[in-house]
Amino acid sequence: MERRLFAVILFLLSWVLVNAQVIEPEYKITLKSPGNPADSYTLLEDASGNLKASQNLPVEIRQQKTETASTIRITVDITAKDLVYYNFEEVCKLAGISHDDCQFFMPGFWYHRNIRSPKEAPSFATSDSWQVREDRLSTPLTGIYSDKTGDFCTVVRLDEFKGESLATHSAGEVILTDKTSLGFTGFRNVGGTTALVFGFPYSEAPKTYIRKLTLAPAVQAFEKLEKGESRQLVWEIRKGKAQDYSAFVADVWNYSYDTFKPQVYAGAMSTAEAKKVLSNFFIESYVDKYPLKYFSGVHMRTDDCKSTGSVEVGFVGRVLLNAFNALEYGEQTNNTGLVNKANSIFDSYLQHGFTPNGFFREFVDYTHNNETDIYSIRRQSEGAFAILNYLDYEKKQGRKHPEWEAKVKALLDNFLKLQGQDGSFPRKFNDNFNVTDASGGSTPSATLPLTMAYTYFKNKQYMESAKQTAVYLEKELISKADYFSSTLDANCEDKEASLYASTALYYLAMASPDKEKARYIDLSKKAAYFALSWYYMWDVPFAQGQMLGDVGFESRGWGNVSVENNHVDVFIFEFATVLDWLAKERNEPRFAEFSSVIKTSMLQLMPVKGHMFDIGKAGYYPEVVQHTNWDYGKNGKGFYNDIFAPGWTVASLWQMLSPDRVSNYFNQKK
To answer: What confidence tens digit (pLDDT) does each residue in 262-294 have?
Structure first.
C-alpha cells in the first residue's frame, strides 16, 4: 500500500513539475531607425510581469497572463513613448524536452519535419528552426509534439486580423508602409531544448519562401508606432498530451475549430446558380478541331481564357469528368448542345484516347505536337473514375456501351499488374509497365475506380485490389501520419494525399458489408483530420490594392495546397460529402459545420458579369489563389498567377455540388 501511495505521489509530483516548469519564456524587442541597422534588446519580466530592458527604451511593454490548468493567455501592450519602429519576439522554451525528440506542426504548411520536402522549400533539410508569417498557415498556430513523452504544446494568435501592409522588399529589414495584423510563429532549437517562437509584426527565418522552390534571405518587418500610440497582441499557449502525432493533429484541429468558430460565407450562390454559371465553361471551352475533342482547361491565361491545344485526362485537366458533368447537366436542362459536346468527347477518347497497351493518353499537346509518355496512377485513376461514372449513368438511362466497358476492364487489368505486394501503386510508369517513380503516395487515387468497378462489373478481383490499397494506406500513410506526393507537380507533404486517403476509405466503406465498414470509417476519419488541417479557419488580411482584398475575399474554408505550392485553391471534390458522412457516422458535428463553411466559401470567386474577379470569362473558376507572400512567378499576394487550369476547378466544384453522386452510384441512402 505504501509503495503504491509513493508511486502515485511520485507521478503527481512529476506531473506538477512538468506543468509548472515546462515553459521558460524569453523576450526581445528589435528597434529600427530608418537608414540604420536595427538593434535588439533583451527584455526581462519585473514583479508585475511587465517587460523591461536594462536601458531606457522609447517603448513601454505591459504584459498580462491568465492561466488555467492547460492554457496561458498572454496579452502584450506595446506603447510608444516616442516615434518608434519595432518588432517584438517571445521564445518559450519547453524545459526538459529535447528538440531532437520532437515533431512539429504548422497547419497547412509544416508536418513532422517536412522531411519529404526538398531543400529548396522549407524543411529540416535546410534548418531545424523555422518561423513564418501567419498567413502561410491555415490556422495561425505552431505545435510541438514530443515523440518520447507524448506531451505537446501549441501557441495560437488570437487578435483581430483586419489589416495588411504592402512591403517594399521581401527580404532583409523592412519598414512597413501601413498597419498590418500579421505576426509570425514557429519553433526553434535553443541549445538542444525545443521552443515555441512567436511575435509581431512578421519575421521569417532562417529563410523566407517567395516562389516555388525558391528560398530567399530572412525578412524582418517593422511597424511604426507614433508617440502615444499602442498595439495590443494576444496569444494563447496550450499544453496537452496525445497518444501519437495523429491524435495530436486531431486534437489541435478540434481546438482550433472551437477557438476560431468559422462561420459559413454569407450570400453564397445556390447549387442551381453555381452550376448554371460553371456550365458556361463547357460551352466556351469546347475544342473539336483535333482527333481528341475536349474542354480546354489547362495552360490558359486568366485574362482572356482562350482555349489552348493542351488536353489532360486527370489532375489539372479532368476533361472526362467534365464531359460527364456536361452530359448529365445537358440532359437535366434539355441542352442538346452540351449533350452533343459531351458525347463527342467520349466518342473521341474511345477511338483515339488510349495507348497501345490500354492506358489513357494522359496529356496531349496538339499545339507543339507532343504528349507525355510517362503515365501516373493518379491521372489514369481519375480517367477511370470519370468513365465509370459515365457508364453507370448511361446504364441507368438504358444505354449500353460494351466497347467502353472493354476499355475500362483492360485499363483496370493494367492496374492489377502494377499493384505491388504491399498494396501500393507506383506514382509513375510508362506504357510498358516500367516504373519510373515507385513512391506510393498516390495509391488512394486508385481505390476509387477499383471499388466502383467492383460494384459495376461485380468482379471480386477489383475489390480485393481495393482492400489491398487500404492495407497499404493504413500501414504506410495513416499509421505513420505521413501523407505525401499525391499532387503530380511537387514532391512533398500535400493536402491531396490525405484528402484522397480519406475519400478512398469512404468509397471502400460504401462498397463493403457492415462488418468491414466500421474499420474503413475509422481510418477515413483519421485521415480526414490531416486533410482538414490544410483548410483555413480564418480570413487572412489583404492590403488595399491587392485584388483579393479589394473584392472582399474571405479565405476561411479554402485549402492550402502543399509545402512546395503555398497558395489556396478549391480542391474539394467529394471531401465535403465525406465530412458530412463522417459527421453522421461518428457523431462529429464540427465536420458537418466546417463542411458548410467550405461549400459556401469556395463559391465566392465565381466569375460572373459584373463580378469577374480578374478572370476573362464567366464560369472559368480561378485556380492559383495567392493569399500570402508567395507566387508561381507572377503577381504575388492578392492575385492569381497569370496561367491557370480551370478544368479541375470546375470539376472539383461540380463534384462538391453533387453530394448524392457517390451514394447513388453505390445505391446506398445517404
So the answer is: 999 998 999 999 999 999 999 999 999 999 999
**Residues 6 or more apart in contact with residue 287 via CB below 8 angstroms:** 293, 294, 295, 296, 307, 309, 311
Return the C-alpha torsion angle 634, 640, 644, 650, nearest 10: 170
Distances (CA, A) of 490 to 110, 378, 562, 565: 15, 13, 8, 8
Provide the residue count of the chain.
670
Burial 287-304 (b: 16+ CB within 10 A, else e): beeeebbbbbbbbbebee
Total-model pTM? 0.95
C-alpha cell recorded at residue 644: 491557370
List CB contacts of 47: < 8 A, sequence separation 6 or more: none
With beta carbons less than 8 A apart as the criterion, state whether 110 and 104 touch: yes
pLDDT at 3: 46
- C-alpha 522/C-alpha 120 separation (Å) is 36
pLDDT band at 669 (very low <50, low <70, confident <90, very high): low
Q: For residue 297, what are the contacts with CB-CB under 8 A and spacing of at least 6?
A: 281, 285, 312, 316, 317, 318, 319, 322, 645, 646, 647, 648, 650
CA distances from 196 to 42, 158, 211 (A): 17, 16, 26
Cβ atoms of 554 and 569 within 8 Å: the answer is no
- What mean pLDDT do residues 377-397 have? 98
Q: Match 517587460 to its residue by C-alpha cell.
A: 51
- CB 113, CB 104: distance < 8 Å: yes
- Residue 668's pLDDT band (cuts 50, 70, 90): low
Alpha-carbon dihedral sign for residues 307, 309, 311, 316: negative
Phi and psi, residue 559, nearest 5°: -105, 135
Question: Is residue 280 classed as helix, strand or coil in its secondary structure?
Answer: helix
Band of residue 515 on the pLDDT scale cut at 50, 70, 90 = confident
Select the more confidently predicted residue: 246 or 22: 246
Question: CB–CB of 114/150 below 8 Å?
Answer: no
Please name which of 238, 216, 141, 121 lies closest in space to residue 185, comparing C-alpha atoms: 141
201 cis-preceded (ω within 30 degrees of 0): yes
Q: In this structure, how many other beta carbons lie within 10 angstroms of the beta carbon of residue 190?
A: 17
Q: Residue 209 and residue 211: Cα distance in Å, rounded?
A: 6
Domains of the chain by start residue, with CATH: 23-260 (no CATH), 271-665 (1.50.10.10)
